Amino acid sequence: MIVDSVKTSELESNKAESIGQSMYQLITKLYPICRSITGDGFRETLNIIKDYIPLEIHEVPTGTEVYDWTVPKEWNIKDAYIKNSQGEKIVEFKNSNLHVVNYSVPVRQKMSLDELKGHLYTLPDYPDWIPYRTTYYKENWGFCLTHKQFLELPAGEYEVVIDSSLEAGHLTYGEYFIAGETTEEVLISCHSCHPSLCNDNLSGISVAVFLAQELSKLSLRYSYRFLFIPGTIGSITWLCRNEAQVSNIKHGLVLTCVGDGGKFTYKRSRQAKADIDKISEYVLACSGKEYEVIDFFPYGYDERQYCSPGFNLAVGCFMKSPHGSFPQYHTSADNLEFVKPEYVYDSYAQCLSILQILENNQTYLNQNPKCEPRLGKRGLYRAVGGQAEEALDELAILWVLNLADGEHTLLDMAQRSGMAFNVIDKAAKALLKHDLLKEITA
Amino acid sequence: MIVDSVKTSELESNKAESIGQSMYQLITKLYPICRSITGDGFRETLNIIKDYIPLEIHEVPTGTEVYDWTVPKEWNIKDAYIKNSQGEKIVEFKNSNLHVVNYSVPVRQKMSLDELKGHLYTLPDYPDWIPYRTTYYKENWGFCLTHKQFLELPAGEYEVVIDSSLEAGHLTYGEYFIAGETTEEVLISCHSCHPSLCNDNLSGISVAVFLAQELSKLSLRYSYRFLFIPGTIGSITWLCRNEAQVSNIKHGLVLTCVGDGGKFTYKRSRQAKADIDKISEYVLACSGKEYEVIDFFPYGYDERQYCSPGFNLAVGCFMKSPHGSFPQYHTSADNLEFVKPEYVYDSYAQCLSILQILENNQTYLNQNPKCEPRLGKRGLYRAVGGQAEEALDELAILWVLNLADGEHTLLDMAQRSGMAFNVIDKAAKALLKHDLLKEITA
Amino acid sequence: MIVDSVKTSELESNKAESIGQSMYQLITKLYPICRSITGDGFRETLNIIKDYIPLEIHEVPTGTEVYDWTVPKEWNIKDAYIKNSQGEKIVEFKNSNLHVVNYSVPVRQKMSLDELKGHLYTLPDYPDWIPYRTTYYKENWGFCLTHKQFLELPAGEYEVVIDSSLEAGHLTYGEYFIAGETTEEVLISCHSCHPSLCNDNLSGISVAVFLAQELSKLSLRYSYRFLFIPGTIGSITWLCRNEAQVSNIKHGLVLTCVGDGGKFTYKRSRQAKADIDKISEYVLACSGKEYEVIDFFPYGYDERQYCSPGFNLAVGCFMKSPHGSFPQYHTSADNLEFVKPEYVYDSYAQCLSILQILENNQTYLNQNPKCEPRLGKRGLYRAVGGQAEEALDELAILWVLNLADGEHTLLDMAQRSGMAFNVIDKAAKALLKHDLLKEITA
Known about the structure:
four-stranded antiparallel beta sheet, alpha/beta, 19 strands, 442 residues
């Protein structure tokens, strides 16, 4: 028996390692691509994801009005560099796509160092790292480089080339819908628009992809909708195009920065006490891992749009280290060393636990509400009475019967009784089998 | 004046001692009887109680359907013993009715020690005590003995005799109803089915009987219903037979384990914030005694049935040491030494305080709600103004006037003002006399 | 720039000092007058206030029924003294109006020391102070003197003269109404009936007068009603005569004991969570000063009447040291040394902050509630994205947009976001200018 248990644990641990490696592999594949909120890098990313899950790809034309916003021109880039007066390429897009300010307009120009400096971005506090900068909504151009290199730039004439295009085209996003028993949906959303940055947010993409793979194998109560979208404009576009169906979304998670070694962070939905908030907090509290639960605030990722007052969806944000809280954030140091297979697996495992409880967190109605039913005649009770020891499973049965008044979910029962969710769930399933409970459908 | 006060206190203390002794006497009378959930032992118990209060005795035939349950066959026992191979009675019902597993079917048989052992129950941790065991709902038989004796049993042939009967008959319970001004009822319930066990629950019976005696002398706002019933099946039977009137029960207490030396324990009703919960907690907090208030959980005594979701009555459970929390529980050590006159009296006194506050915990409506009434012209206020000292009684009057908006009971006022209930009550009575308050009838 | 800031700060500090001095000057002017709940001293007080603000003066005839009360006879006093057997005036009204028990009936009589003692009031614990006593509702007379003098009174015959009148007349009060944009009113009330006592309540009068002066210069959302009334009978009279308009009062403050050096004390309205309660607590928490917030209790000043259950107005009480908490209370030691210009100014400044937040504490509706509006195109957002630093003002804008659902006031937003009220208010004003918010009118 002990040998068996060790084997199971070994199997579990092997499985975890294998999933973690596959998740990391996906990150590795996606890392070199120069993504932006539009363009071929985003398309290439979705095509790689398509090898894992049957993604539906949507193209929304430039100029489409989406609420207060307009789908921008499509940006693509072939090459970019800065040449010094000796004709040497000293900053090169091919070495790191972070070198070019994302959404830079095409430029081909010679200029003095002083003039050039107005277009250069560095991180004086981290002189070896390249920052990540964007200029989505103001036509401009620029280069990012290490502060070390910046300090060593000699005076002289420089040639600047950005071989990009900013033209009418499309905004692209990927969507994967898994139909469950009901039309009620769980939304899993991750921004997929950042270039070579691993934690933010290749880690989120990877967790979403592997959750989708796993869920697609299961028989599900809820339907699940996975969105791989450009940040902000992507969620705005999706909400605008799908406004009529948005009310189907009953629960949701934004996944972001889920691959670093920091503690878990759950940011509550604007509703603050939605089921997804209670379950996420419960799962993290039971995880034995370090974690923090923080209140909603209107900054961060696409939860800003999902939780805008006109929608106010029950969508929380699942993270490890929140954006801005680690120095590597939005720099070249958010790379393949910064995220690790075990970290993305850990995030995946916690999210899966959250979704499993969500799936099972039913509300029941006791079918014998006046006095307790006789459990003994149904084999649900011990035979010899009078013993002082607390029979745990019986207590779970009694809790479920007592609280199955249509006002308490199984999680409410678990929390009120102090018993584990799966013990309560097992008791409920046993009672359901004996027709002592009835599921309440919303 | 000091002499008077000492006299009063002595009188009080003499009265307490005398009541405590009478309560203990009742326990002593009931102790030897072999009670069970049905049968003549239960009837004999009720007949003794009838010497104290005019109990109505109900008999419900075997086989009667009560919700999910059926009234069981009636169990009676004349004698039982185990004889060793020398023909000596080594375990004898006549020495302790705990020796026989309650509800054991008749048996008259010879068998080896090994075979016998499958029917023997002991307490290895307490080798000198006899455990209390039952087999109500599974036809079986057994003996309970000390572990010490068990270990010394030699191999050999044993003769086992249980001269019991398990036949169609009745379930018996006692009921005493005291009519008050209103049809709203307070339920006092205690299980009365245990054989020679003092704390669980001859103590509860004794407190209930003496509360009933005392209340029957008073002019009461509420009606009071006292139930002396077999545990579980008794409350289920009563609820089923009286379902139409159950909604009259507005408050209630289950009394159990109220005779030991432990601290007071009040277990809240399922409603958690019912008047009975607030008052019980308040009385214990004011008692100067050690106490604990615990939340409802669906295990314990007949509060399980009263608080089942189909009834959800405001019935709490008043205890000293809760069942299972003391080693003597359900053993021969729960005897006449374990309970003491002063302990049962203490429980009686706290319960009486609870009921007294319940009786007086009115909700009033200020008849002069716009600005304060002029108290001075009614002799309710001091004459010389400007003094800094707080006049306590006046403050109570002002609190009552301010909160007599129909939303606050006197207890709410006591708690919000931090003043004693009786000070607030006295102020309310004075205002009532001056027609400044009107009682709100529910 | 630093020079400028020092100048501003100096200007601020000069302005504070100048206001404080003016406030103290008013107290100095009012100090010598012998006020009571009726009579010429009250009229003289209102006439002095009239030099500052255009007060409307009301006269209510003796005998007028006001709810459970009757407007009393008018009391006036010309002189009073006690002469010893040598014909020396040993206690003289002209030295301190506290010497005469307020509302003493006329008396002109010779008597022994023993007889006289039944009419003398002293403070044994503070032998150098004269107490303040009243006998409004019981016809009586008396003198107050220092305990030191009392102890030295030789036996002998004394002549007692109180040249007062207690006759049909009027109860007088002052009212100043400042009309704002809406008919919703803020009530500022202070009792003005005490004779030579500075903290209680010339300090309250002074703060009310200077608040009224300041508010009269501003464009206001609310209307403001200032009441200078005799304690208790004054608020009862006003409420009774204005019952039909009382519901216009949405917020209010009773001002009392606001000139001593103790910490600030805010006593909540009976509603406990009214806007005035939340704002007062917020302002004191932000003030950097020592303060305490206490719950409503039905003792104190005119908040007792405003918060009687028939009105239950959102009126709190703003104080420094509460009545009865300082030994100088209701004694001759509550004099011009006990209050200080900087203390009354401090109270004035906190009250003004409270009223300013009240004025600005709007509830708004986001006009673009589905997703965030594009702030960039309105110049409300930075141009270069990707930076980690938190842009404070932008965050305020996002908070306002997110919570402008008609359920949150600006104060709610400030408290939920942890940002200062004025930062949130500024963000709201900016959004309002861009038609992204709409004011909700109640």
